[in-house]
Design goal:
CATH architecture: 3-Layer(aba) Sandwich
Order of helices and strands: EHEHEHEHEH
Strand content: 15-25%
CATH topology: Rossmann fold
C-alpha cells in the first residue's frame, strides 16, 4: 500500500483530492494522510516516509512553494514525488516549481480525468 500525504488548508479540498486520486488511480491502494498546512506537513514528513505528496500551492503560513523549497533544502524531495495544485497558475512559476523538484503543477478544481492522465504520463516517464 502506498502512502500519500495531502496538504491543503481546506478540509473539503483534501477530501476532493482524495476522491479524485481514488478514481484516477484505482489500481493502486493508497493509505491517506492529511495536513492542513505546510507546518503540519513538514512535521509529518520528518517522522514518516511517503510515496506521494499532493499539496495546494496557496496556503496560509507555509505555502506549497515554501514547503517544496524546504523539502529541496533538506534533501527529502529527491525521494518524494510532489504534485502541486492551485487555482492560479502562471508558466514562470510552474517552471520555478518544477526546478525545485515538483513533478507537476495542476489547476484546481482537480478532476479524476486530469489526474489520471497526469499520473499515467508520469508513470510512463518513471517519475511515479
Amino acid at each position: 500500500m502506498k502512502k500519500v500525504l495531502i496538504v491543503d488548508d481546506s478540509a473539503m479540498a483534501r477530501m476532493m483530492i482524495k476522491k479524485c486520486l481514488e478514481i484516477a488511480d484505482a489500481e493502486v491502494q493508497y493509505e491517506y494522510f492529511e495536513a492542513e498546512d505546510g507546518d503540519v506537513a513538514m512535521e509529518m514528513l520528518s517522522k514518516e516516509s511517503f510515496d506521494l505528496l499532493i499539496s495546494d500551492l496557496n496556503m496560509p503560513r507555509i505555502t506549497g512553494e515554501m514547503l517544496i523549497k524546504g523539502l529541496k533544502k533538506n534533501g527529502t524531495i529527491q525521494d518524494l514525488p510532489v504534485i502541486l495544485i492551485s487555482s492560479k497558475i502562471n508558466d514562470s512559476k510552474v517552471e520555478e516549481l518544477m526546478g525545485d523538484g515538483a513533478i507537476g503543477v495542476l489547476k484546481k478544481p482537480l478532476t479524476p480525468t486530469v489526474l489520471h492522465k497526469f499520473i499515467k504520463n508520469k508513470r510512463e516517464k518513471g517519475l511515479l
